[in-house]
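User: Fold both of these, please.

Assistant: Here is the first one.
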Amino acid sequence: MKYTGMAPGMWALFAHSFRKQLTEVFAYDPAAAKRITRKAHGEYRKIIAGIPEFEKGDRFKMNIVSCAMLTAFVLSMDTRPDVRRLTDYYRQAMMIPPMKLFCRLSAASKFTEKDVNGMRKTAAFRAADRNPYSWNMEFLPYSDDSGYEVRFSNCGICTLMKQYGLFDLVSAMCSLDYTMSEAGGASIFRRQHTLAAGGPYCDCGYVKKVK
């Protein structure tokens, strides 16, 4: 993947927050946080360069770029973090005001005909058949019209973090699904299985909130 467009844009948007949370969550002093961030930027560029280009129409490019960013910071830290603290770090680093706004705007169209059609199209696309850093999913509407479930049989985050010896930390990223759903305000997020925990798939259930 070329370091153009989304990749530098994501770095510009989130790097300050990722650096700040090195101090807030891991207690690095500001000088160390700056040094780690500088090293992480180099790692990030290398990771991005090793990811194949995503096809036009693949809606998961942002997910893998976010994973590349977290992976770069973990590889640059002085001490390998445990999954609990990394979960807190990633959540706080990602949930900056523009991200909260993105969640609310996305929630405004949740469960609409456009949203459902987009999910069906993504399920049929099966991007991971051609790119192991992308995702394959099934779309399963609930029979009572209370929402829907998405089941992932292939996960680009698992592929990338396993490549860098960080597979045990994948759940730190998975937990953001709950946070984003809550920030959006349109759905209650439910999950029973993850590939990272040895499950048969990753399930993402979205139940309509009763207004």
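And the second sequence with its predicted structure:
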Amino acid sequence: MKKIAAITVGQSPRTDMVSDIAPLLPGVEILQFGALDGLTPAEIRREFGPDPGEAPVTTKLADGTPVEFSDRKILGRLQDCITRAEAAGASAILMLCTGAFPAFRSQIPVLQPTALVRAFVTGTLRGRRLGVLSPAAGKMQAAHIFWHDEGAGLIACAAALPYGDMDTVLAAAESLKAQGAAVILLDCMGFSRAQKRLVAEATGLEVILPRTVSARALAEIVDV
């Protein structure tokens, strides 16, 4: 059986994410690794918390608790996960985060959702207004700058935590529609297929989900 690795910036297993991804990868064993495995919330805040003014990354711990941290501070632990995934026989790796990361040392493909989603969005937007639903208000400005630099001239932004109340997510999505968005990007791997369906039903708009965009790209790499 083919093996791939799913590496979360938080703690594994991420059953919520893998349950959405696995149906798109039939006959593939998914190994899971987490950059924050074995750490307590207090240790995460103390060692990897975001500095003042730094846009945090939000993830969910193994017990379901949301936590914020600095992505740049966990790069070494992510590299360790990649090394362990290679040793375990994975033929490709999917990062379970839409954050921007540098190139990692690896002998196998490491798929980063940010690059995959960027290509997908820019290839399908066709001049329509993009609505970006960020996981935190502190990431909205960075998202606006990122997509403007990618050529998405018409951008609307809103924020809602994917692990919070669904009514809040839907309200944020409706605000994007009110701002003239024609396409909504759920800009976090934490958003699920179920949330995508609810947002699409509530707004009547196209909705792009990084989880499934990434999984379908991975299926092409491992040829399933």
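DSSP finds eight helices and ten strands in the chain.
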